[in-house]
Amino acid sequence: MTPALRNIAIIAHVDHGKTTLVDEMLRQSGAVRDNAEMAERAMDSNDIERERGITILAKCTSVVWEKGDEPVRLNIVDTPGHADFGGEVERILSMVDGCLLLIDAAEGPMPQTKFVLSKALALGLRPILVINKVDRPSADPDKALDAAFDLFAALGANDEQLDFPVLYAAGRDGWADKTIDGPRADLDALFETVVEHVPAPDVAEGPDAPFRMLATTLEADPFLGRILTGRIISGTAKPGVTMKALSRDGKTIEQARVSKVLGFRGLKRQPVDEALPGDIIAIAGFSKASVSDTLCDLTATEPLPSQPIDPPTLSITIAPNDSPLAGREGDKVQSRVIRERLMRQAEGDVAISVTETEAKDGFEVAGRGELQLGVLIENMRREGFELAVSRPRVVTRTDDNGQVLEPIEEIVIDVDDEYSGVVIEKLSQKKAELAEMKPAGAGKTRLVMHAPSRALIGYHGEFLTDTRGTGVMNRSYLEHQPHKGAIEGRRNGVLISNGDGTAVPYAIWNLEERGVMFISPGEVLYEGMIVGENAKPDDLDVNPLKAKQLTNMRASGKDEAVKLTPPHRMSLEQAIAYIGDDELVEVTPKSIRLRKIALKPHLRKRRAKETA
After folding, report:
1. What are the structural domains, with CATH classification, of the chain?
2. Beta partners for 284?
3. Which candidate, 459, 364, 358, 374, places its Cα nearest to that of 409?
4. Is the CB of residue 46 less than 8 Å from the CB of residue 148?
5. Is 113:103 a contact under the CB 8 Å cutoff?
6. How far apart are CA 384 and CA 159, in angstroms?
């Protein structure tokens, strides 16, 4: 018996328990055997997703629930929680007929949730509210429910959407109930609510109509090539059939023979002989078709309506590492290998574009934000690449009148009342405009500001300092607007090593009064490497290699032991945001170093003499 279908998306803020809940749904539905080993947070398949607790890639899974009147297959789509990875959100939501909104019982709905939820409500989806982690001591489910209702109303939900069912859950313990004092045994109440509340897919045209499917996600597989995922609107999909791909404007991109039709079965994608309308599947065989294209029968002429792909807002230059320490820690250092890796990334991620620079020695990589580009570089670093990375730049456009337009982002900030003034002041200096300011309860203020993307590069660390670590900031692309003019950058200069060698404790101890050090004793340094931040605005050449001079005269008192302040270590994203236009981040599998692109004239002369 073919199970009935329900397609749902799960929407949640970072760390509200979305992936843990899906783990339990897989176990209790029998998609994963009780005695089978399943990794914790199985949907977070990427190492960085597990480490950071964020969903980067939109993924599908399915479970079959058989306790009702008839078996029902639930296709579950996991949506990215961070706006940098939200390029697929609207297309992903077009595959589903309902959604679960998961919120923390203590924190309530967070700004990150607003981005995906607003898209879901605009598409007419009727959400099911799941208040998670109600077993925690700090939980306040009634307050969380009121805040969720207010959010729905603020986002323009209609009466039908406002009449949402509510479930109380503890995903980690594997239970969900319709009342706060329910039996707390299993997730049956969740499955029942989904089957009752989410409509079955609309398959008016049926399986005999010509095949049509909108590609919503894309990935590159080393064996199958391009794999395009989407929901079948009409017709049936079978392997071996020749289809064509239409662009958004109706032009034929290519014709191709379908090599594989893959269905989602539990955590695995399995080949199927036939897929019916309403099902979410993946198709292999196309070489040019991409996201937003319509895959269809050869007789079809009209493409399915789709959302355009949002433009990239930030770009960086990635080049082979050419420092004096190049090739010591990584095994992938050639430009050709880096190019192949970046092109492979661009093929599987529509939000990233790669072009060669004019000098042919680097690659311009454009993406949605610092986090997305940082994750790409971190992945390459773990694969053994050595790279030199430039400071991020915004991707500008020029309108019909020749005016330069730059990307503007909407920032939603939740901050303690006492810190709202300093946040507004700092962002106003960065050409941001205050769009909305209102009390958020519990002594907090919510600010909505519109700021140029370039003003926010590296601002997050400063924001956490200003708010004593209590502020929450979420960003999403708004639109391109006329260029806002010059914005003040980093105020401090840097300390630059004037020689090659190993850092000496005595020298670092003497340099600490000059500023903050980035290095430890014993580190290998080279001329031009940035070893610290100067307390003054100018760059300063220093000698971190100078040892204490010993004499044959006995000192009258004992020498004091050298006590060093621990160095300031930056993460990859912090380093990329910190550097200036004339500096680079050197990224290797083991190290993150900063360096100047151009040496000062006297250092250049000295290096030329030594080379000669």
Report:
1. 4-197 (3.40.50.300), 212-296 (2.40.30.10), 397-482 (3.30.70.240), 494-552+559-611 (2.40.50.250)
2. 227, 260
3. 459
4. no
5. yes
6. 54
Helix then strand then coil, in percent of the chain rounded to 5, is 25, 30, 45
What radius of gyration, in Å, describes the C-alpha atoms of the chain?
28
- Pairwise CA distance, residues 379 & 385, whole Å: 9
569: which 2 tokens? 């270590």
Q: Is 135 exposed, middle or buried (0-12, 13-18, 19+ CB in 10 A)?
A: middle
Task: Tell me how crowded residue 415 is: count the other CB atoms within 10 A of its CB.
Answer: 23
- 224 neighbors 259 (Cβ within 8 angstroms): yes
Cα–Cα distance for residue pair 92/98, rounded to 1 Å = 12
Which amino acid is present at 138? Answer: S
Query: Which of 322, 323, 317, 333 has the alpha carbon at shortest distance from 589?
Result: 333
Residues 185-243: tens digit of each pLDDT? 888 889 899 999 998 887 766 677 889 898 887 877 888 888 888 888 888 899 999 99
The structure tokens listed for 272 are 């199927």
Give the tens place of pLDDT for each residue, 314-363: 889 999 998 889 888 888 889 899 999 998 888 767 778 888 887 667 89
